[in-house]
């Protein structure tokens, strides 16, 4: 029943994706009652998730192949056909 | 029938986007797409026409991506993240003192809106060992299903959660040092 901080924070991470089970969340909450460090981690984890969401929006379609790159690719393929 | 002369025009963008959402590195993604086309040429006699040309090329690309993951996960490419918890002894599983979370400035909620945050975060993600960055991005930034990532990279879900946990603990610390406490 008792979790280490390593285990507790791992469940905490998992629950950020809503994938922690009922028992995991129960054990986590018990741990959080007693552990200040993990409590802080848990609180900050929500902020981190917001940062990742913001980052996701900005990542968008940053990468694409440019015409030159495709031309080279095509040339190399035709040499091998 | 396969039509290799048209592969680049028809499939290069699709294959490239598929790759970049898994491997966030332009040149590497481009090389994997190129390798896929070459491998496709070599194996073109095996194409039975049961699947579409694109599906067939994707199946080759998937192997290339697993091979890449194996390489960055191999003993040689194995860079580990900094440990945040004791891994043995009496204190196993407890926080290592200098890695314990510090409280952040009260203004932190607001500073999430700052546009530079993304730049700093990107640097932090890029500082992770490749394997951690790859799985973290797939799960968190690209938001793939756990099951899909496990299948694609041939890892177990407990494996995945350990990687995510280590990546997130490391990123928290990195953002604390470079953003929230500045």
UniProtKB/TrEMBL annotation, chain A:
<protein>
    <recommendedName>
        <fullName>Glycine dehydrogenase</fullName>
    </recommendedName>
</protein>
From TrEMBL, chain B:
<dbReference type="InterPro" id="IPR036388">
    <property type="entry name" value="WH-like_DNA-bd_sf"/>
</dbReference>
<keyword id="KW-0238">DNA-binding</keyword>
<feature type="domain" description="RNA polymerase sigma-70 region 2">
    <location>
        <begin position="8"/>
        <end position="71"/>
    </location>
</feature>
<dbReference type="InterPro" id="IPR039425">
    <property type="entry name" value="RNA_pol_sigma-70-like"/>
</dbReference>
<dbReference type="GO" id="GO:0006352">
    <property type="term" value="P:DNA-templated transcription initiation"/>
</dbReference>
<dbReference type="GO" id="GO:0016987">
    <property type="term" value="F:sigma factor activity"/>
</dbReference>
<dbReference type="InterPro" id="IPR013249">
    <property type="entry name" value="RNA_pol_sigma70_r4_t2"/>
</dbReference>
<keyword id="KW-0805">Transcription regulation</keyword>
<dbReference type="Pfam" id="PF04542">
    <property type="entry name" value="Sigma70_r2"/>
</dbReference>
<dbReference type="InterPro" id="IPR013325">
    <property type="entry name" value="RNA_pol_sigma_r2"/>
</dbReference>
<comment type="similarity">
    <text>Belongs to the sigma-70 factor family. ECF subfamily.</text>
</comment>
<keyword id="KW-0731">Sigma factor</keyword>
<dbReference type="InterPro" id="IPR007627">
    <property type="entry name" value="RNA_pol_sigma70_r2"/>
</dbReference>
<dbReference type="Pfam" id="PF08281">
    <property type="entry name" value="Sigma70_r4_2"/>
</dbReference>
<feature type="domain" description="RNA polymerase sigma factor 70 region 4 type 2">
    <location>
        <begin position="120"/>
        <end position="171"/>
    </location>
</feature>
<dbReference type="InterPro" id="IPR013324">
    <property type="entry name" value="RNA_pol_sigma_r3/r4-like"/>
</dbReference>
<keyword id="KW-0804">Transcription</keyword>
<dbReference type="InterPro" id="IPR014284">
    <property type="entry name" value="RNA_pol_sigma-70_dom"/>
</dbReference>
<dbReference type="GO" id="GO:0003677">
    <property type="term" value="F:DNA binding"/>
</dbReference>
<protein>
    <submittedName>
        <fullName>RNA polymerase sigma-70 factor (ECF subfamily)</fullName>
    </submittedName>
</protein>
